């Protein structure tokens, strides 16, 4: 049976590949992009099953207006994929106020507002799935990505709570956490102006690694998209889906280290209780 999807950030990367994959299998897609002509060739190929919705994730009024129009026109949208986002690259001291505001407005506030906009519609149709494309960076942190991590850790915390709120309405949430994947993410980074004082620090090492392409990228974009779609279609979907061997290894190592640190603080934690 044909499924209808709404996908943000559908003009490039995982969003575009997911849109192409779903259309090829016979589904309908509401593809959300910033430029009206971004998917003109694809729309010409699938005129009856691809609807292009144009708005910027930082414009909450336009986002809500377009989401309402999409549900009104489509009738039912079973899957909502929050995929729009990008990376801000630079040490916390290096990034500008404007860069911070845009990063949070796009990755975090925009994703929050998308969820808020679709929830009334999903409740009214008595269920649906929200898929948040996060990152291993939603639970693991690296130098020079502090604001990107703030946005991803933030949206994951938001959805931890929302998932509990909407479960009674038949609404499931899936958080996809890809590791390093060949998607063009690096080429789309917003770079801060570097400070020389960070050259011989972990931030400088990461900067050089990005510049010379020495970081290991094992993730396959198509296989990542296929896994996200499979999770969204599962009868009982997982809440979190690590994608790629590096993502799994990094997440497991980070969580084990965090748990060990917390366990060492047991006596301190209990000492803060009232008698």
Automatic annotation (TrEMBL):
Family to which the UniProt record says this protein belongs: Belongs to the short-chain dehydrogenases/reductases (SDR) family.
Key words, A-Z: Oxidoreductase
Keyword flag Ribosomal protein: no
PANTHER family found in the cross-reference section: SHORT CHAIN DEHYDROGENASE (PTHR43976), SHORT-CHAIN DEHYDROGENASE_REDUCTASE FAMILY PROTEIN (PTHR43976:SF16)
SUPFAM superfamilies: NAD(P)-binding Rossmann-fold domains (SSF51735)
Protein name (record): Short-chain dehydrogenase/reductase
Higher taxonomy: Bacteria, Pseudomonadati, Pseudomonadota, Gammaproteobacteria, Enterobacterales
Stored NCBIfam families: PRK06482.1
């Amino acid at each position: 049976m044909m499924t209808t999807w709404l996908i943000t950030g559908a003009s490039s990367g995982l969003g575009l590949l997911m849109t192409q994959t779903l259309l090829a299998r016979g589904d309908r897609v509401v593809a959300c992009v910033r430029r009206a002509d971004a998917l003109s060739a694809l729309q010409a190929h699938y005129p009856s099953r691809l609807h292009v919705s144009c708005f910027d994730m930082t414009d909450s009024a336009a986002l809500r207006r377009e989401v309402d129009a999409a549900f009104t026109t489509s009738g039912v949208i079973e899957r909502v994929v929050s995929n729009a986002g990008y990376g801000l690259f630079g040490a916390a001291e290096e990034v500008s106020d404007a860069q911070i505001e845009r990063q949070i407005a796009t990755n975090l506030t925009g994703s929050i507002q998308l969820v808020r906009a679709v929830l009334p519609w999903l409740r009214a149709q008595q269920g649906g799935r929200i898929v948040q494309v996060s990152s291993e960076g939603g639970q693991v942190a690296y130098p020079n990505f502090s604001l990107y991590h703030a946005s991803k850790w933030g949206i994951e915390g938001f959805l931890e709570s929302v998932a509990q709120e909407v479960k009674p309405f038949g609404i499931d949430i899936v958080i996809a956490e890809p590791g390093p994947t060949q998607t063009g993410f690096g080429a789309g980074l917003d770079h801060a102006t570097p400070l020389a004082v960070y050259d011989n620090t972990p931030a400088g090492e990461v900067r050089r690694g990005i510049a010379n392409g020495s970081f290991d990228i094992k993730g396959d974009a198509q296989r990542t998209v296929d896994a996200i779609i499979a999770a969204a279609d599962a009868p009982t979907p997982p809440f979190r889906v690590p994608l790629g061997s590096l993502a799994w290894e990094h997440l497991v190592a980070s969580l084990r280290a965090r748990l060990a640190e917390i366990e060492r603080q047991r006596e301190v934690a209990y000492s803060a209780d009232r008698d």
